[in-house]
Write a structure and sequence with these properties.
The complex is a heterodimer.
Chain A lengths: L3 E5 L4 H12 L3 E6 L11 E5 L5 H15 L4 E4 L14 H29 L2 E6 L12 H21 L4 E7 L13 H9 L9 H12 L10 E3 L5
Parallel strand pairs in A: 1-2, 1-4, 2-3, 4-5, 5-6, 6-7
Chain B lengths: L2 H20 L22 H19 L8 H4 L9 H13 L1
Helix pairs in contact in B: 1-2, 1-4
The chains are: A alpha/beta, B mainly alpha.
Chain lengths: 233, 98
Amino acid sequence: MQPVMLITGTRKGIGRFLVDRYVARGYVVAGCSREPFEGAAPENYHHYCVDVTDEPHVVEMVRDVSKRFGGIAALINNAGVAAMNHLLLTPVATIERIFRTNVFGTFIVMREVAKVMSSARHGRIVNFATVATPLNLEGEASYAASKAAVESLTRVAARELAPFQITVNAVGPTPVLTDLIRNVPKQKMDALIAAQSIRRMGEYRDVANVIDFFIAADSDFVTGQTLYLGGIN
Amino acid sequence: METRNLALEIVTTVVQDMSGELAYPSLRNVSPETPLFGGPDGIDSLSLVRIVAEVEREAEQKAGKRVVLADERAMSMRHSPFRSVTSLADLLAERLGE
């Protein structure tokens, strides 16, 4: 039977890349985003127009995926939003919006999928962190703080879900050319990359490589970890 | 079926179904008096989590209503609603009736 993977935030960027990658590797992939999928969906990909912050719809989606495809082996909690602004200029509405998607959305999907995985006594969950957290990047207070919360969620969830043979880890990408960083000034981006041990822009394959490791069958002794790319710690 | 009876049936069935896997002698013959959490024959917290999650799932399927059992209200009750099959069924009936 083909393993089933749920990926959030699949409409574009890394999420879209991951859909193609894991379909090609024999997964049945279900994905979601607020908007319809862009372009032709590959065979074995099933899209749900669901906002990860919408609890009833997430519950419905997870139940449907589990029923239709027979469980969920891996969850890639990729959906996220970012915003850059100085602390003094950041409205509460902005930090609320960021926390709602990055923290509450990650939590809701993780909780619902973990219920399915706990019955199967197996599962792999990968959340998304960021190097903005350990680098304490100026202008990213809301985003970095939300991802710090995701790291904490990851560590605690790893402990609580370990008895069900579910692992929970996080990947912390460096800047990768996506919509999230399109508006970051070049000077700022150069300084950020200069802070890395390996000074280049991240690529989708770098992120996917870490996910491959976390979801591998042999990674059953790896949980509660956040792995930053580019040599940042 | 009356809500209280449905709630008792859901809780009893869930505990019965999970009793083999949880392997507690106290869960061998499930009745309304079967102890769950707390006391000398009680199950551990992780087993309780599994039972409550399963009861919530079953309740949604059989009663068509999504309920949350382990919330602040339940945690702060004078007598824990998780102490036995009957007390958990009472809690479930109450939530289904809201």
